[in-house]
Amino acid sequence: MSIINKAAAIGGGVIGAGWVARLLLNGIDVSIFDPDPEATRKVGEVMKGARRAYKQMLPGGLPKEGKLTFAKTIAEAVADADFIQESVPERLDLKHRVLAEIDAHAPANAIVGSSTSGIKPTDMQVAMKKHPERLVVGHPFNPVYLLPLVEIVGGEQTFPEAIEVAKELYASIGMKPVVVRKEIEAFVGDRLLEAAWREALWLVKDGICTVEELDDIMRYSFGLRWAQMGMFQVYRVAGGEAGMRHFMAQFGPCLKWAWTKLMDVPEFNDELVDLIATQSDEQAHGLSIRELEKIRDDNLVAIMEALSKQNKGKGWGAGALHKDYTRQLAKLAAKKASAKVTAKAEAAKPVKKAAKPAKAAKPAKAVKVEKPKKKSGKKKG
Amino acid sequence: MSIINKAAAIGGGVIGAGWVARLLLNGIDVSIFDPDPEATRKVGEVMKGARRAYKQMLPGGLPKEGKLTFAKTIAEAVADADFIQESVPERLDLKHRVLAEIDAHAPANAIVGSSTSGIKPTDMQVAMKKHPERLVVGHPFNPVYLLPLVEIVGGEQTFPEAIEVAKELYASIGMKPVVVRKEIEAFVGDRLLEAAWREALWLVKDGICTVEELDDIMRYSFGLRWAQMGMFQVYRVAGGEAGMRHFMAQFGPCLKWAWTKLMDVPEFNDELVDLIATQSDEQAHGLSIRELEKIRDDNLVAIMEALSKQNKGKGWGAGALHKDYTRQLAKLAAKKASAKVTAKAEAAKPVKKAAKPAKAAKPAKAVKVEKPKKKSGKKKG
């Protein structure tokens, strides 16, 4: 069961709407602010996809969805939220404006998570005049309603307690929080993605392969490995009986061979965009984005489900988590069913609260940082 | 059914033994040469793991295994092979010696594949005095018996026909051949891996995360994505309704932010090896390499199986291939069963050939390059 009572989402793009979907499907009410006149439709599309995916995970039925409200201002959206997730475009000035407003109007005990994939929390929280100590980066991966990872990063002013509460909040909606130990730009996931992406652009630009060939090279080889073990453990196993030291000794020296071109950045011009966009069109083989999205979601659910049955039935990696998550959602769905029965039995006296017995029964846990002992100020300089 | 009649494996390390396992489990006889006195035991260990994995894929039973012979010399190993795979350590001088000997003794029509993960075929085939035109790089991924990808790369002297035949040979043992369009060192797969690996070493060295945290960040997020769609298609879908151009426009500029440290190579010293080896030990949580290997194999089979049921039952990516491959192996296994019945029925007159009806029935297809029209010499200079 989630420990979030009421959530606010600021920004409803692919990532923001993904958060909204995950929260609503966990039965949590969400208030969203997004100035885009198309926001309602766009969030609706993502919700449709997320509902579809969750139905595959939960053939027994979904929990009662939380209520979605479109707020007219940030102030209105965050007014009574205990968890706020910011997912606006990656511009520091915009982040500052939005975070300042969130901070001014949110309850003091609310945790503020930022979906930024690269900006340091220290650079963002300077805009929060009241409670900068409750800002964490909570960097998710698309599709947010399915992929469990959330990188948590604290800034110089962030309280350790806020990180602890954030971990619990994210975990309570089925996610895998990993706290990044030191604050660096782009954190860990996007550093790795950026490295691979740069090299990929070179390979396509230089005509070594097309985007489809590169994608095939990934998904028929190391992509399958990385769905279940990361690169270090994969190499540990590859080292065979001799283990990791052997592997390192064997492959360490190649690091000095200047194979990759990562020292340079390919020129990002129209020609490169054209080349990649055209090849990407060909690769789609006529499938629309929506169709590809469904295929992707079905595949992700199927992979996680397959992994949930491994390791002598205990589940492995994302599969073990998936097992717990679907079990938690199924319980929530069962509560909805029993709540309905109760509601029917007590039909004579209509009690509105009966629709949400789960929430009423359990107090929010997010109050841990409600009274921060002291503002620590800048830790490092 | 494979079009390989008789294979030779030169080198029986993790990769060489992986090839042996894939070939034998496809019912193909293999002659192996490896001077390591431990070779028999090591290959036996890999075979054990491979058999275990294939039993999961084929609950109805495995095809009759090919016969494995340990040859005393390279000459003996390759004497009657129509497909030879070289998997010796990555040193050019060694590759030269081994390929020269393979070339001197192999039948003229045999295809020679090299497992090198980085050396250009042009640089290797100079050592082949008789038929350099039949050398291709056939770069696989560990575990070779399970992961389908093989990168095929031709050198300046390689005949296009040899590449075509190599594609067919590899595909006939359930693999996904992708031909790399231009010859570069490290090809495509290892360029991407190298880029990610370098960045990963920095992240651990700088204490941003441990190897376990980095691995978790991979396998709970983009690893799940890349098991089924490569990075370009993933981003196409992430671009949403606006598609690839939108995505490129949005994320292109970040390329100029010097986030990744790939311009530098971390110093590869004992301290770094110690740090990583120690963290890797911790990450294993007491599981031995053998146990981890089993878990990895089970996971890979489960993922491919899960993907084989997607896309309206047609299968997707490695899953679609897995479906075809297991079907092909099941057919081969059924032939073994019917051969047994025939053998029993004809018990009165023992006919040795009855054990291998499949091979006798179908002539080898690998003869296409038997009579190369002309040696083209160096194409480029």
Automatic annotation (TrEMBL), chains A, B:
Pathway: Amine and polyamine metabolism; carnitine metabolism
Compartments (UniProt record): Cytoplasm
Reactions it catalyzes: carnitine + NAD(+) = 3-dehydrocarnitine + NADH + H(+)
Top EC class, one word: oxidoreductase
Compositional bias per record (Low complexity), positions renumbered to this chain: 357-366
Residue ranges constituting the 3-hydroxyacyl-CoA dehydrogenase NAD binding domain according to the UniProt record: 7-183
The keyword Cytoplasm belongs to this UniProt entry's keyword annotation: yes
An annotated Gene Ontology molecular function: carnitine 3-dehydrogenase activity
Biased composition (Basic residues): 371-381
Family: Belongs to the 3-hydroxyacyl-CoA dehydrogenase family. L-carnitine dehydrogenase subfamily.
Protein task: Catalyzes the NAD(+)-dependent oxidation of L-carnitine to 3-dehydrocarnitine.
Name of the featured protein: L-carnitine dehydrogenase
Taxonomic source organism: Mesorhizobium atlanticum
